[in-house]
Amino acid sequence: MLIPITQEKLRQLVPAVATGAQYLYVWGKLQDVLRRVIFAVVAVAIVTFGLEFLGDGTQLVLGLVAGLYWLWAPAVLASWRNRRYRRFPYAGFWQGRVLEVYVTEELVGKEETVDDQGQLVIIENRERCLNLEIGDKSGFETTVRTKLLRQHRVIRPGDVAQMLVLSRRPDLAEIEMISEVYLPRHRLWIGNYPMLQRDIFVELSETLRRQRRSPRRSRSPRRSTL
After folding, report:
1. Terminal CA-CA length for the chain
2. Domain residue ranges of the chain, discontinuous segments joined by +
3. C-alpha to C-alpha distance for 168 and 1, rounded to whole angstroms
4. Rounded Cα–Cα distance for residues 195 and 191 (Å)
5. HSE toward the beta carbon, residue 153, CA cutoff 13 A
6. Averaged pLDDT for residues 183-197
7. 193 in the Ramachandran plot: left (φ > 0), alpha (ψ -120 to 50) or beta?
8. pLDDT tens-digit readout, 36-72
9. Other beta carbons within 10 Å of 111
10. Can you give the pTM of this predicted structure?
11. How far apart are CA 138 and CA 143, in angstroms?
């Protein structure tokens, strides 16, 4: 099932300003924070010693902005990412099924160290990931991957899967971007970047479910627009 949604609904589902969950996702790991801190220190040094001609007031403001880069950068990056999603001209509510569930080990990083003999040793960091293959009767299929958690054990092939899809074609024939996947039976979200305002998406899901159960429901749900 694929139901087109309006631009107004798309802007409700994908916020213009980063949410707390989006901020935390872009915040990253310790090495990401350290990288931003180093950048902030370098930027402050440039402002302090290289931009003296701007005057004390301007220099102070720029120094504060540069010094806090490590803190505000994730919010800006997440908001910019949201803007990319919101600029898609067409979007739809997609519902299908889980076709297959399997676990893989993925390389997430490498560390270089030196052993007792003075030789360089490369350590690979891997984590177990959940892979969901989802699809619908139209033949559309895709795979969503995320870090494996204990609550994922309840997921089974055949579970209903829902998500937001983005396209540049009015008939949504070519899907260019998808959101995280919602499994209403288990109330689980599968994916990485938390694109959606999830409470609004769940409300939309419930509204569509009630409409399908109504005796006056449309015979052509693909042509309706929300």
Report:
1. 14
2. 2-14+89-218, 23-86
3. 19
4. 9
5. 2
6. 96
7. beta
8. 999 999 999 988 887 777 777 888 899 899 999 999 9
9. 10
10. 0.83
11. 16
